[in-house]
Design brief:
The complex is a heterotrimer of chains A (about 500), B (about 110) and C (about 220).
Chain A (H helix, E strand, L loop, with lengths): L4 H10 L1 H20 L5 H24 L6 E3 L3 E3 L1 H23 L8 H20 L3 H19 L6 H32 L4 H5 L11 H7 L1 H19 L7 H8 L2 H28 L5 H30 L4 H21 L3 H32 L15 H15 L5 H13 L9 H26 L12 H19 L2 H10 L6
Antiparallel strand pairs in A: 1-2
Helix pairs in contact in A: 2-3, 2-5, 3-4, 4-5, 4-12, 4-15, 5-6, 5-12, 6-7, 6-12, 7-10, 7-11, 9-10, 9-13, 10-12, 11-12, 11-14, 12-13, 12-14, 12-15, 13-14, 13-18, 14-15, 14-17, 14-18, 15-16, 15-17, 15-19, 15-20, 16-18, 16-19, 17-19
Chain B lengths: L4 H21 L3 H32 L7 H31 L5 H4 L4
Chain C lengths: L1 H21 L3 H22 L2 H25 L19 H23 L20 H9 L3 H22 L30 H14 L1
Helix pairs in contact in C: 1-2, 2-3
Classes of the chains: A mainly alpha (about 500), B mainly alpha (about 110), C mainly alpha (about 220).
Chain lengths: ~500, ~110, ~220
Amino acid sequence: MFLTGDIHAKSLGLLAPELVLVAVSLLILVLDLVWKERDSSRLGWISIGGLALTSFLLLLAFGRSGGPEHETAFALVTIDRFGIFFKLFTCAALAVVIFFVMQDRRERKSHIGEYYFLLLGAAIGIFFMVGTNNLLLLVLGLELLSLASYSLAGFHKAERRSAEAAMKYVIFGGLSAGVMVYGISLLYGLTGTLDLRVMAGVAQGEGVTRSLAQAITESPGAVAIAMVMILGGFSYKMSVAPFHFWAPDVYEGAPTPVTTFLAVGSKAAGFGALLRFLAVLFQDGGAAEAVRAYGLQVGSLLALLAAVTMTIGNLAAMRQESVKRMLAYSSVAHAGYLLVGVAAMTSEGFEAAMFYLVAYYLMNLGAFGVLLYFSGETGEETFDSLDGLGYKAPLISVAMVVFLISLTGLPPMIGFLGKWKLIQAAMDPALDGRLLWLVICLVLNSVVSLYYYLRVAKHLFLKQPAERSVRPAPALTGLLVVLAVLNVLLLAYARPLVEWTSASFDLILR
Amino acid sequence: MSVPTEYLLGLAAILFGIGIAGFLTRRNLIVVLMSIELMLNAANLSLVAGARMHSTQRLLDGAGPDLQGPVLAIFVIAVAAVEAAVGLALIIALYRRKQTVSLESVSELRD
Amino acid sequence: MANLLFYLMATLATVCAIGVVVARSPVVSVVSLLGSFASLAIIYLLAGYQFLAAVQILVYGGAVMVLFLFTIMLLNLGDPAVIHGESEPLFHHSRRTLLGLGVAAAVGAAGLIAILRVAWSAMPQPAELPEGGLDPLDQLAASMFTHYSLAFEAASVLLLATAVGVLVLAKRNRRPTAEVFPRESQQPATPSSPPTSTPSAGAQGQEVAEEGVLS
């Protein structure tokens, strides 16, 4: 297939958000060299401005899309609402992360242009990752995200933990890349195509010698190995067991804004790519019966992974003395909760996972923001360092309590609704209660998580008021209060949000 | 060469297994990175085997050879080079601090 | 004849791969790795992938190998005794080694079994190669710059991000603090000197040389 100039121009128009991101990231790199200044806030605001422009273009594209047929840019990037949802999510998460960088009192602001450039580069990787039905671009996007994340995790390489965290990240990242590419090569060998829609048999494509349905019936063993390996690659990005080893160390060692990005942006990207992979391959109405049945088996495997992941995450989080490490394990546990919706392998389940991601965004960004503030003040991240600070910084501390309750999944916060929707999806009558055990596991885990989340509140408020004074941070406080209010408000006015996530899931014909 | 495709895939599986073994058993970070390179190479060989098979089918049908496999293989080579570059840069950064390239130096983060 | 060469190269690739994993000295590992890559390139050539074989040699033999060797030489790791962690017996942790070998064997065996059972036997086996191999350069280029042009651009962004990332990671800090280089004896900073003392001219020269190659 040869593309003509007209089609190229049209494709470029469809890719406007990506192009804006690339342009802004290059601009940052050049301006950093030209200005040569220590004060970094101008570069930060330019990055946020670029993200705002990108989001605006994405919203326009969201309005245009929604029909049954999706447009394709350069034959690789599919412009559908699902992809736009995750791209918007990334922009929103990254804007807050860049704001965190600007507010980070432990950041020495050297090489700050590279910092923003790498963050934007990671976003470009995510855009390719969640926007494509082609495994080739998926691999490239994933690698771009990984590469930028490695460098970001090691950004404070002068600190022991940062360099070691990055090294660990690179090693496990390389392993997962190898495993995933090997799995993809097997899948390609079996079907003769790298395009997921062609593979599933819902689109025509050249080069197919065998459909996935045929491959499943003829050589189930090879398909199973390919699937397990590809899921392993996704698990790494989502920090799902058994590929979660890196997460606590990397989250702890990386600079806090980067940790925030890894926990929210990178994880969401992994889930976005996984949801697309599963939905396109196994769920489409046009897919053969054997393929759908196979999808249910994949779902059972994911259910097992979900249970293991959330249990490991929660049990380990209880034993931590560092708040940052606790939040890292808690983020592993949340990956397990998110997988509950995926394991249901229904549209409702996928939508529930997407909704939970929005809730996760609101509560986790907030929690990491509070950690950023307190660790900037005390220079430590332990529970003990928080003793009595609730009286010195009441607004931020109250916001923290809101985030923690939301993370636990108790009303009246949005985290409650997120978990509720996951449970609802897992208890779908169509599943015949097959996932009942997983729901019980989820509820038990949430109860366990209450213990370590409330421990933070205990240290903040129930200890002797601290001797030390803390400097106010009006801008950060303002953002955190807004996030906390959203946590409460969006439970009361959840309907538009729920409808928006449902409308965003347009991967398959129903 | 009229070697069956299975043999190519088998060689890829063996190389991949050796790569995993090196990754799991060695503690020298440079050797660990080399093991990752081995794994990516095995994946590439597997891609080539698949592409060769599909191309043969397509040539029998009168179409041109299948190019998805080779194109992905070229990009995977780029990815492998990039992984090695970042990994080695970090090894240098770590070595400056600790004078060692042992995996144990990284494991310190564990509780 | 071609078949014989394939079996020879397959054996060589496997032996070299094992050499990478078991060699005591990293330099031997690197040379083994190069052998493995080169044998794979010949296998690609035999299978009809000429351009891929060239890329394999150019990128791996030319770039990646040099990168590995350069790091080993820069850090003076050629002698195993120098390396802190490798002066003990090769496979030190017996439990971990067993686990690792077990997992590796399981993965390899699972792959082999899956592949050698019916998996691909229904597919046609290759006969004569067409003129120009299975990746004729004109078609490959056309495909790369039309159908996959976006992937090509994505790879360029990937390389740029890597260049910046590597620069950030490998660059020596301009103002090393006492906390940053606690053990480096050649550092001019004495305990009494302020932590923000600038490095000597010699150290700066070395630093520039390192950065020049790494970036």
